[in-house]
Amino acid sequence: MRAIHLVAVVAVVVAGACERGQNKPAPLYTARAYLEVLPEVALQPGTPSIEWAGSTIEERLRTHAALIKAEPILIRAMADSEVQQTVWYRESPDTAVARLRDILRVYAIPDTALIAVVVTTYDPVTAAALANAVATAYVDDHTEFTRRVYDEHLTNLHAEKEERQAEIDRLIDVFSSEAGVAPSQGEQIRLEELVRELTRQEVTLTNQFRAAQSLHERLQELQEQGALAEAPEVLDRLNADPSYAQLLKLKSEASAGLQQLLAQYNEDHPAVIEATERLQTIEEQLGEMTQLASDIALVDAESNVLELMLSREQVARELEVATQEMRRIGAATAQLANRRAQFEELNGRLARISEMIAETKLLRDRAPTVRLQQRATVPTEPSRTE
Q1: Average pLDDT of 277-305?
Q2: Longest Cα pair distance anywhere in the chain, in angstroms?
Q3: Chain centroid offset of residue 288 CA
Q4: Which position among 31, 58, 191, 297 has the lowest Cβ density within 10 Å, counted as fewest Cβ atoms?
Q5: Distance CA 127, CA 139 (A)
Q6: pLDDT at 1
Q7: Distance from CA of residue 11 to its chain's centroid?
């Protein structure tokens, strides 16, 4: 009877303990993932942009935060493998999106370019998996959408570019027929581009020639003053030669050794004489290397001046030929002034379309404008209890 009574007492105590455990508030865990909204690219007028033109960073953050909570993003997040492995998802996949919406918070962090994706639930692993899934789903969706829209823009721009080029080609044919001249297709455009390029080269070569000439004159002046060895161009050449550094080291050692001998013997002592001759030999070698470096620096400077002068003259001749040819074509088509103005307008539009294509490609390549700045980690401490 005592044994039965003892078992009954133990059962009552255990049952009471279990009941108190069931009534204890369950802990909630909060996980946070962070998205960064990248700075908006400054575009020239007419270039398409995915972002909201003229909007402030605060407005962009609020818009992104609202889109993150959209149902397509949440549905995409539910396809995440880590989410589908959680008990939270498996207990009711059909209601997962609705349940996620109840435990999800998305907000912009003031004075930053960050958006917090926050999930609070009873399981810390589930909280982190859901936060990361939502953040990743939005970045992936935004990337795909951005690139898809930019691809559509590029298709339209390429089509417009082809239309403008066809108009230009037709206009060139008109020039040829009415002016009695038959330039090859795009000849005038090619020449204009060639003249611009040759002009740029001539300016660059002129500046380089002047700089090289100034350097040569400076080295000549230093040579006349006997100070060419101190020129930076000579010193740089010497310092780059390992054998020069080795000679400097030998000179230092020889000089130190000579001083030690002089402290013991007079100048006529054989050891002193030998050390002196060794030092003189090293100094002569250094002098020869310095003279050679000075000569090379002067010759290089002179050669550079000559080379640049010849290059500039060659470019000037090519520029003159191209300019004369361009004038010839221009004179032959002078009577088509009105059509020429139309041609310039079309050509400018074509150049602008090319710029827009280049800018759009850059925008597409830098997509998305939102990136995952920090993944959510599994929380180790509950945020609150219920």
Answers
A1: 90
A2: 130
A3: 48
A4: 58
A5: 19
A6: 37
A7: 71
Query: 325 near 250, Cβ under 8 Å?
Result: no
SS3 labels along 352-364: HHHHHHHHHHHHH
Q: pLDDT tens digit string along 106-146? A: 999 999 999 999 999 999 999 999 999 999 999 999 988 88
For the chain, give the mean pLDDT. Answer: 83
What token pair was written down for 112?
């930053």
In this prediction, residue 15 has a pLDDT band, given cuts at 50, 70 and 90, of very low
Number of other residues whose CB lies within 10 A of the CB of residue 80: 18
Instruction: Return the amino acid letter for 359.
Output: E
pTM over 0.85: no
Contacts of 84 (CB under 8 A, 6+ apart): 78, 90, 93
Lookup result for tokens 């810390």: 124
Question: Domain spanning 27-155+367-385: which CATH class is it, in words?
Answer: alpha beta
pLDDT at 127: 95
Virtual torsion, Cα 66, 67, 73, 75, nearest 10 deg: 60
Give the list of residues 6+ apart from residue 367 with CB closer than 8 angstroms, or none. 50, 143, 146, 147, 150
Mean pLDDT for the stretch of residues 151-167: 87
The token pair that represents 184 in the structure block: 């090859």
Tokens matching residue 370 = 């939102």
Contact 305, 216 (CB under 8 A): yes
**Intervals of CATH 3.30.1890 along the chain:** 27-155+367-385
Strands 27-37 and 384-385: antiparallel
